[in-house]
Amino acid sequence: MNAVRHICVCAALAALLASGCGAPHGQPNKGSEVVAPNEVLEFRTLYADNCAGCHGADGRGGAAIALANPVYLAIADDAAIRKAVANGVPGTAMPAFATSAGGLLTDAQIDVLTNDIRARFCRKRRRERRTLDQIKRNNCRNGGSSDSGVGMMGNVDTKN
Ligand code: HEC
Fold this sequence. Notes:
Cytochrome Bc1 Complex, Chain D, domain 2; globular
């Protein structure tokens, strides 16, 4: 009897271990197994596997800041986003993802993430928030800075 129970417990544990944690970082989702992890260049897969756990399924935030925040996207330029993803943010839970920094993502994958965070998350917010003025929208898409002629603080939306 004891032996039987022991086997049951082991089987249950094995099942838990096998199913508990979903796809590990950098691994493909179900249905995309034919693609090697370091060849995945689809934003949705990369984001879901590596980022959503902390930043929320659609960039709305969770354990970490919301990336789909037009104020954040207006202020952060692509270089800053890329650097955070590649090298992590020291002193925070934000891990380094570049292979050169011990992570699992290639430069090409980090490029996809950097570009598409802005493209996708800006678009989403634009549709929902018609009150955003043109300058804010442009900055969200183009990255903070430069040619709008408006200082950064001019773009801060206190509602977020
Ligand atoms: C283990 C949790 C975790 C994971 C996984 C994670 N992040 Fe983060 N990330 C954080 C935290 C925490 C911060 C906030 C750091 C800070 O306080 O500035 C952050 C910050 C950032 C920032 C902003 C850095 C800045 O302040 O300019 C970007 C961009 C970012 N993450 C992108 C990503 C992307 C893309 C992924 C997936 C490849 C990802 N993160 C995965 C926790 C995580």
